[in-house]
Amino acid sequence: MTAGPPVVAGAAEGALPSAPIASIRGASLGDRIYRIATLACATAVPILLLLIAFEIGSAAWPALDKAGLSFLTSSDWDPVRENFGAAPMIYGTIVSSLIALVLATPLALGVAVFLSEFASPRIRQPIAFLVDLLAAIPSVVYGLWGVFVLMPILREDLMPFLADTLKLGNTPFFSGPAYGPSMLAAGIILAIMILPYISAVSREVLMAVPRSQREAALALGATRWETIRDAVVPYARSGILGGIILGLARALGETMAVTMLIGNRHEISASLFAPGYTLASVIANEFAEATGELHTSALMACGAVLFAVTLTMNAMARWLVYKVSK
Amino acid sequence: MQRHIAVLTLFAVAACGGGEKSAADSTGAQDAMPSSSSSSVDLNGAGATFPYPIYSKWFSDYATKTGVKINYQSIGSGGGIKQLSEGTVDFGASDGPMSDADIAKAKGGKVLHFPTVLGADVIIYNLPQITAPLRLTGELVADIFLGKITKWNDQRIAAVNRGVALPAKDMLVVHRSDGSGTTYIFTDYLATISPAWASGPGRGKEVKWPVGLGGKGNEGVAGTVKQTPGSIGYAELAYATQNKLASALLQNSSGAFVEASVASITAAAEGASGSLGPESDYRVSIVNAAGAAAYPISSFTWLLVYETQADAAKGQKLVDFMKWMYAEGQSSAPALDYAPLPAALSQQLTARLASVKLGATP
Description:
The structure holds two protein chains of two kinds.
Chain A: H1 29-67, H2 70-73, E1 77-78, E2 83-84, H3 87-118, H4 121-133, H5 139-165, H6 183-207, H7 211-219, H8 224-253, H9 256-261, H10 279-286, H11 293-325
Antiparallel strand pairs in A: 1-2
Chain B: H1 2-29, E1 43-47, H2 52-66, E2 70-73, H3 77-86, E3 91-94, H4 100-105, E4 111-125, E5 135-136, H5 138-146, H6 155-160, E6 172-176, H7 181-193, H8 195-199, E7 213-215, H9 217-227, E8 231-236, H10 237-242, E9 249-251, E10 257-258, H11 262-273, E11 298-306, E12 308-309, H12 312-327, H13 343-352, E13 357-358
Helix pairs in contact in B: 5-7, 12-13
């Protein structure tokens, strides 16, 4: 990975040429072949996606057929008696990703604003490179770091601080014993993992904001803070949201690091100190040794649900981008 | 794009060609077996990860000795059973026996179970204040993992650990989150000892745990136990020994508190093998076995072999390997923390290899 995470720039949309090249009469043979080749590429990917969806769906059918709607609402996951309910995993997938977004977004925006508005090129390059480098670390390394560094800090410092010093222990969200492996641990590691995606996209988008935008605000007597708040960030907001969506997609599907830190317990608990589970983790944990056909099918159903959750969250986020950019 | 594909294809061809060549060279150099075929791999197997270290040692020793190459993929017991049933491998391996329903579904006919070595689970815990090994009974372990005992200074634990100052700490139960043979052996033991466990979570590679945290793999469980004072979990013996984890003495069926060791595990197989007659199919659990020295959470691990070998040449190679494994291979087990089979059982199993039929289609 040399160039860091890919850039989703909302500003680039609508820049495609409106008249397809192929409609030009008398196109040469080479152009036609080229057109067919690119068409094949363009259709192969959606077809592949549909095939994957169909395969997962048909493999998941036996478990969904047996459990019905309770697959989505039940917390009972018992491979011995072949009862499967995925509610704790759905909850865990969404909650851990949201914690990650809440923690990572302000930090990533801070990094992006500093780099694009304040930093001199000499500082900008190394800091941007180091932040982007976070995206190149394999997730199992994040998991190991989480187990050996983050977990003791959580158990001995952060969790007692939240519960006792800040007196949040009385609220349901920070109650219960602090063992370390928890929803909070998973959320924090995910936040670190998605931070480079959000900050890289936001940085590029902020740097693409025209100079005239800033100069106009400054000319009207705005301070630098007011310029950034009222002129620069609003101009770039759809691009920034695009970066957040990218981070969210990464968080929803992340498997290894989360499995190592979330505690893997099939239970919905309001407390962030309690262990949880995610859809991706349960597949990683149980697929290799799932012997019963229904068990395998239930894991495929988890895959299908993860697919659906990702699609829904992405659709909601896209709708948000649409609303904001209007 | 086309040029890239062409380059990739060239690489693939070169890689395959290179692999075959070197393999053929090494077989040719030690072509001791008359039946050695021209292919680079003679037998393919897949299955359990738990015995992988000893299996790979056996296969490499056997290849050096006879030139017969055996390829083994440690994809997990479940995967091994699936691949054997589909007939994509020549033999399977599993930490838990196949059910009758599984055997009925296998495409190659009846599947025979051959125990190879023994493994065991140990109870690991983290109580920094306590230096003497903790003593536990099966009922206590079951009640801890059922969530009925939650404090370390519970009266019932104190009753078997007289003179030990147990802390008034909460217990944190740690179990495996991934499906595994280690969990199968452990839950098999608890279900044997405790009616409440048998009617509750039951036995399986993955069960519905009443309490506790899930760690991925032996390293996940051991990592959490090592870091968290007051925690208790289980891990396979080899892993616990190599990582020097504190482990509990367990009470066996004759009332003695036994440490898990190669000797005490083999003793469990001796205790159980009395009931294994020549007509046994060896799909037996040896948890809580008889014998004063027997360690209670012990288990066989099995090679899965079709009774009727469709390919006579391959079948013969497999039988020859297993004869060598029972005669000579067993001695290399203890160095890798696996318990060898009792000598009498090895002989009994060697004799049983005669029941493998060669060449006839089922």
